Amino acid sequence: MSSFELDCANLSFQLPDHVQSFIRKFATGATDPLMAHCQRELFHEAWKVLLDEDFIHAYLHGVIMDCADGIRRRVYPRIFTYSADYPEK
Amino acid sequence: MVYYIKDNDFDFPEAPPPSSPPFEFFDMASSPAPPEPAVEPSKRIRKPTAKRRMALEDALPEGPGPIDARPEPPRAVSPVRNILLRLPRLVRTVANSFGVSRLYINTPTHIPDADIALPDMVADHASDKKNSQKSEKSVLEMISPYPNVSAFRFGNWFWNGSYKKSKEERDELINVMLGRDFDVEDLRGVNFNKIDAELANDPEGTGESDNGWSTSTLTIKVPVATKITKASRRKKANADRAAQVHDEVDTEMESIGGKKFAIPGFRHRKLMHILKSSIEGNSDQAKQYHWHPFEQYWQPPDEEQPPEQMYDEIYSSPTFVKADRELQESPRESGCDLPRVIAAIMLWSDATHVAQFGQAKLWPIYLYLGNLSKYARCKPSEHTGHQAAYLPTVK
User: Fold this and answer.
1) A 34-53 residues with CB below 8 A of B?
2) Which of B290, B272, B109, B383 is nearest to A65 (CA)?
3) Within 10 A of A67 (CB to CB), how many other CB atoms are there?
4) For residues B181 and B143, is the Cβ–Cβ distance under 8 A?
5) Mean pLDDT of chain B
6) H-helix or E-strand containing B92?
7) Residue B193 CB-half CA count within 13 A
8) Which of B33, B195, B280, B366 has the fewest CB atoms within 10 Å, i.e. the most exposed one?
């Protein structure tokens, strides 16, 4: 149960519509800084979704879990590292 | 384990004399054998010192020692700390044969690697262990949502292989139908359309609903080149009022200085679902989680020397120790006496090209638990990474 392998099987992932054509309707064009800005906004929006209510509640109050070693504990998630280059390019 | 001694302060008997050049190439077929290099008679062959001989003897890895029964002297704390009612009760493990001991802040509920067997520390053991622990599921669980093996074999033939009728496919079908575990009667009344729909809704193929996955639409604000002036503000206020009157909201006009742009198809998984499934699971891996951080010290053989602190895992890092201390010092949830522990989340994401040509790109976010030793966590064969999300990109 614990190991969900890193397989990318059957992901119904779709690339979004071109944001450039959307931008061209309003602005002079999709410049690099503007695109970087959009990507950053998107990244933060994604994390707003990921850090949902359940997670925040667990962060503050913990979640009771029956660990595999047979001991029941109150587990508090904490983010220690985030190794990433954010999709700015 | 093999020790390589790079130092050259003792000479092996077969070492070439210092007069010969470092590299020589001989064409063995055409040229006669090179003359034996003359060994300088004055060169004394030294025996390795006792220290060197000791280093060559192999030392097997081992876990930490048991908890020391003698009370650990309380640490000198600053005067402010003394106000705290609950002083940490330090617990030290007995140093193992490498002189390594751990200092736990409180008595740990469980030390996962204390009674670890030697084979679990040997690198190439992991693959056999993996295979032996694999098939814990029953056959019916594995082929879910197919109701029986015959239906699964038939469905498997239908979906895999070529999509055209061919002689090979015919032979394949004959093989399926003549298989020992195939019974035509089992196919009676099986609704294959329903099974196909269930499979399509279960991308992980685990048979248990959505596994925490869901899809969202992200909305970002794209800045546009309209200056925020008094006129534009007035125009927006008028538009808002008009929208209220007509009871409609024009999303494009919702804000000045940024047009909303929706990006559909953000696939993500509930973080708590990942944590729960990986912590509560009954796998060998879940039993190896370190829930209590510790400081690790190495006592040099010379007892006069002070011990040195060792940093090797997340759970022996000062950050984890500090985070745990803050958690233990925080007020408890009312009516809960359970031990409180930290699940150390380590995130990782990077672009992944999914095709050899073209722009198809995925931006996965993976989640690892730092409570697992890095020696297991970093092994691809251990499958310790969990997919958390797939970021869309706006290009």
Assistant:
1) 34-35, 37-39, 41-43, 45-46, 49-52
2) B272
3) 21
4) no
5) 75
6) strand B91-92
7) 0
8) B33
- Both tokens of B143, joined, read 């082929």
Q: Which residue has the tokens 């031990």?
A: B339
Helical packing angle, A53-61 and B271-280, nearest 10°: 50
For residue A36, the chain B residue with the least C-alpha distance is B394
Question: Counting Cβ atoms within 10 Å, is residue A49 exposed (0-12), middle (13-18) or buried (19+)?
Answer: middle
ipTM rounded to 2 decimals: 0.77
Decide: helix, strand or coil at residue B304. coil
Q: Residue B121 phi/psi, 5° resolution?
A: -100, -5
Average pLDDT over every residue of B58-78: 74
Instruction: Give dist(CA B101, CA B294) in Å, integer.
Output: 10
Q: Is the pLDDT of residue A52 over 70?
A: yes
Taking an 8 Å cut-off on Cβ atoms, the answer to whether A73 and B109 are in contact is yes
Task: Tell the burial category of B169 from Cβ atoms under 10 Å away from its Cβ (0-12, 13-18, 19+).
Answer: middle
Q: Residue B120: how many CB atoms within 10 A of its CB? A: 16
Least Cα distance to B183 among B145, B152, B142 occurs for: B152
Q: What is the pLDDT of residues B264-321, one digit of tens each?
A: 778 889 999 899 888 887 777 888 899 999 999 999 988 889 999 999 999 999 999 9
pTM value? 0.63
Using the structure block, give the residue that is written with the tokens 């280059």: A85
Residue B252: what pLDDT? 45
Positive or negative CA dihedral for B230, B233, B239, B242? negative
**Quick check: B331 and A41 in contact, CB under 8 A?**
no
Q: Answer whether B101's CB lies under 8 Å from B94's CB.
A: yes
B12 contact partners, CB below 8 Å, separation of at least 6: none
Burial category of B189 from C-beta neighbours within 10 Å (exposed 0-12, middle 13-18, buried 19 and up): exposed
Mapping DSSP to helix (H, G, I), strand (E, B) and coil, where does residue B127 land?
helix
Distance CA(B37)–CA(B35), nearest Å, equals 6
* Cα of A52 vs its chain's centroid, Å: 10
Identify the closest residue of chain B to A70 by CA–CA distance: B287
Q: Do A27 and B225 touch (CB under 8 A)?
A: yes
Is-contact B242 B285, C-beta < 8 A? no
**Token pair for B330:** 């925080």
Residue located via tokens 């008028």? B238
- Which chain A residue's Cα is nearest to B263? A16
* Range with the poorest average pLDDT among A3-12, B94-103, B245-254: A3-12
As a whole number of angstroms, the distance between CA B285 and CA A2 comes to 8
